[in-house]
Amino acid sequence: MRTCLILVGLALGTPLSGARAAAPEARFGGFGEYRVDASVPCLTDEQRAEIQARISAGIRTLRAENLLPPPAAQAVSFDWPVRLKAGLGDPGFHGISNFVDHDPGYPNAVQDYMCGTRTYDLSNGYNHQGTDVFSWPFGWYKMDHDQVEVVAAAPGTIVSKSDGNYDRDCSFTGSDWNAVYVVHADGSEAWYGHLKSGSLTPKAAGQTVSRGEYLGIVGSSGNSTGPHLHFEVYDAANHLIDPYAGPCNSSTPTTWWTSERPYYDSAINAIMTHDAPPVFPACPGEETLNQRTAFTPGETAYFAVYYRDQLSGQVSNYAVYDAANALVTRWSHSSPSPFYAASYWYWSLTLPTNRSNGWWRFQVTYLGTTYQRPFYVGDPTAVAGLPAAAGIRFIGGTPNPVASGASFEFELLARERVRLVLLDGEGRRVTTLSNGWFGSGAHHVSWDGRDAGGRAVAPGLYFARLEADRRAAITRKVVVAR
Ligand SMILES: [Zn+2]
What we know:
The protein is mainly beta. The protein folds into 3 domains: 2-14 and 23-35 and 265-378, Immunoglobulin-like; 39-241, Glucose Permease (Domain IIA) (Distorted Sandwich); 388-480, Immunoglobulin-like (Sandwich), CATH 2.60.40.1930. Helix content is 6%, strand content 39%. The protein is built from 3 helices and 28 strands. Strands 4, 5, 7, 8, 9, 10, 12 and 13 form an 8-stranded antiparallel β-sheet that branches. The longest helix is centred in the first third of the chain and has 20 residues, at 45-64. The protein is globular, with a radius of gyration of 24 Å. The two termini are 41 Å apart. The relative contact order is 0.13. Mean pLDDT is 88; it is low at 1-21 and 382-389. It binds zinc ion. Zinc ion binds at residues 1, 42, 98, 128, 130, 132, 230. Residues 1, 42, 98, 128, 130, 132, 230 line the site of zinc ion (ZN). It comes from Eiseniibacteriota bacterium. Keywords: Signal. GO terms for molecular function: metalloendopeptidase activity.
């Protein structure tokens, strides 16, 4: 599958006319969408045949070695096969570009499980055979920073995998993908394709994986021009299964999902503040986020919201509040287009100079859910002289309690040197998680649950302490429970 980002930047750069004392007003800045360009298959017929032969051989070998039990009559249910890396806070991170094509005709004869057209086929007879789940927004950034993980949708045994194939090939050259193939207890199999090179689980064929276990990072290996997971399923008789239940899906009468997501899974994936519009370069360039958390009064900030499955008529109500929780400005918007698999909209606002400084918030309410993004308005040069809480926001670690690992998130108003240490209940240093310079904005530091000597720490109470030069430290409780 090819995907590309179509940018329709409508930078309405009209200067504000009239009195400058008018109430601050957000100005529409631009819009973009992630459009599916379905001109090549995720897999060619030759590649699919080669994979099927490899899986069959793998199954035979493992059965002969008693590493794979014979199929049992046992229903398989799938959990969602992707997740955001622990500790990241965005409310969403994916979209669906293509479902399985149930119309055997071609080309331009497509029908997804709901009798819609969210799938594709090609003139050579290819009908899309999987579910494509793409990372959104900033798919390349997410891939380069290992932010979206592919996990086992159901427990099973790895029967084959391939790694080391190039993952930034933006022209269709028929290159192979990186993938993990898992057989479940009932003999059905799931293919997890397009994984990032070098990111695959170290487990080999014959080893089992549990539900939700890490398999790799969402990547763009093989025939792909944007990071996404191609999830393809077969039953024990090797019939292609579309795991969604719907009137135009004859491959299964009931859903294979533990909790099936709606056909239009409309939601906001991210809400952000920027100092310039985000930049989406051509494949395979990593996006430039231009994300910023701290602003000076009088500066222009960009407020952006990133949607999946946005439909016309769905109203978004946006608002900006100052540090005293007083409304600065609000506006609303609804998409004029029937459907976007992924879209983003942004507005610019010159931050007024006569408001309460400190942590402001950008807020959007969409389909009954309110999403918030805090940002700082004040004098960044004064950061070093401020108490720690004014210059640094230490969100702490997630998950908490910690079982095997955690990710700590903090935000800085300006570039500075930061040390993150883990202390035990008596205040003794257990390990140093990070020590170095960080720019303004949000940062994540992961911890593998081990002390400085590499040993897993004992269950109990710990403290994560974030220290910045010349200022008081901020401490957060960490509970380790194994
Ligand atoms: Zn696909």
